[in-house]
């Protein structure tokens, strides 16, 4: 898991995914399947990506009552992804139920997928959080609070922005994954992301993995762009 660059496959369907992956040939990647793709294609997209040897983060951000999340996770465990997630806002009991479901659905002799919790979406600003969610603390405090709750529930880590990773490590300790979307090169558009950081910043902050979507998937030459990102992320060019 550590030091991975996860490509967000935010595509409308399997055909678009195949078109995107085709130029990568046999290269095995770490990819993320989110709501857009999974709600269209269902489990078959996971089977297809696994057949090609890709590692998979199934980013469905479960958030419901504990019993529902437990049973949903039991089913998702059978897909044998590497990483799944929930929203920490669902609470400790819900997160514990997610783990129970995952363990129940994981075949004998296999390792259950890592399970992490979204703290505050990287598209959320402090102002939005204060005014819309009525959470009257600083954004960093909220993210750290959710991280502690996630650790107490027994999960493996969190989704956060690179800006919060160091503070989370200080507070929660290790091992604890920090998976960070909202990663952009200086010249990239932020789009809907509010808490963005460069891959250099993320590496220096010691995050476990970065998630990169549009900067790679919408570039003119995704393979070349991916290669450039990998080199920067791994510190070949700082
Ligand atoms: O807080 C979060 C949680 C998940 N995401 C997901 O990551 C990618 C980011 O894509 P970009 O195109 O690089 O912005 C996307 O799939 C989100 O659903 C996130 O951005 N923030």
Automatic annotation (TrEMBL):
Its EC number is 4.1.1.23. One of its GO terms (molecular function) is orotidine-5'-phosphate decarboxylase activity. Substrate binds at residues 10, 32, 59-68, 122, 184, 193, 213-214. Keywords: Decarboxylase, Lyase, Pyrimidine biosynthesis. Catalyzes the decarboxylation of orotidine 5'-monophosphate (OMP) to uridine 5'-monophosphate (UMP). Pfam families: OMPdecase. Residues 4-229 form the Orotidine 5'-phosphate decarboxylase domain. It comes from the Bacteria. PROSITE patterns: OMPDECASE (PS00156). Homodimer. InterPro entries: Aldolase_TIM, OMPdecase, OMPdecase_AS, OMPdecase_bac, OMPdeCOase_dom, RibuloseP-bd_barrel. NCBIfam families: PRK00230.1, pyrF. SUPFAM superfamilies: Ribulose-phoshate binding barrel. This is Orotidine 5'-phosphate decarboxylase. Pathway: Pyrimidine metabolism; UMP biosynthesis via de novo pathway; UMP from orotate: step 2/2. GO terms for biological process: 'de novo' pyrimidine nucleobase biosynthetic process; 'de novo' UMP biosynthetic process. It catalyses: orotidine 5'-phosphate + H(+) = UMP + CO2. GO terms for cellular component: cytosol. The active site is at residues 59, 61, 64. The keyword Nucleus does not apply. Belongs to the OMP decarboxylase family. Type 1 subfamily. It comes from Neobacillus thermocopriae.
């Amino acid at each position: 898991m550590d030091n991975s660059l996860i490509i967000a496959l935010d595509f409308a369907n399997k055909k678009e995914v195949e078109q995107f992956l085709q130029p990568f040939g046999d290269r095995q990647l770490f990819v993320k399947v989110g709501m857009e793709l999974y709600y269209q294609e269902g489990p078959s997209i996971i089977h297809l990506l696994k057949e090609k040897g890709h590692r998979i983060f199934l980013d469905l951000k479960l958030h419901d009552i504990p019993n529902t999340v437990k049973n949903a996770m039991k089913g998702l465990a059978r897909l044998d992804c590497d990483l799944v997630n929930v929203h920490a806002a669902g609470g400790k009991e819900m997160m514990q139920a997610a783990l129970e479901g995952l363990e129940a659905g994981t075949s004998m002799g296999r390792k259950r997928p890592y399970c992490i919790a979204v703290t505050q979406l990287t598209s959320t600003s402090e102002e939005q959080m204060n005014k819309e969610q009525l959470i009257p603390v600083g954004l960093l405090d909220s993210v750290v609070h959710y991280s502690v709750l996630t650790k107490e529930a027994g999960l493996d880590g969190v989704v956060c922005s690179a800006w919060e990773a160091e503070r989370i490590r200080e507070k929660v300790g290790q091992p604890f994954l920090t998976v960070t979307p909202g990663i952009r090169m200086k010249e990239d558009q932020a789009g809907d992301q509010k808490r963005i950081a460069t891959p250099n910043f993320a590496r220096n902050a010691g995050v476990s993995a970065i998630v990169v979507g549009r900067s790679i998937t919408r570039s003119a030459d995704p393979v070349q762009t991916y290669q450039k990102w990998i080199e920067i992320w791994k510190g070949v060019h700082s």
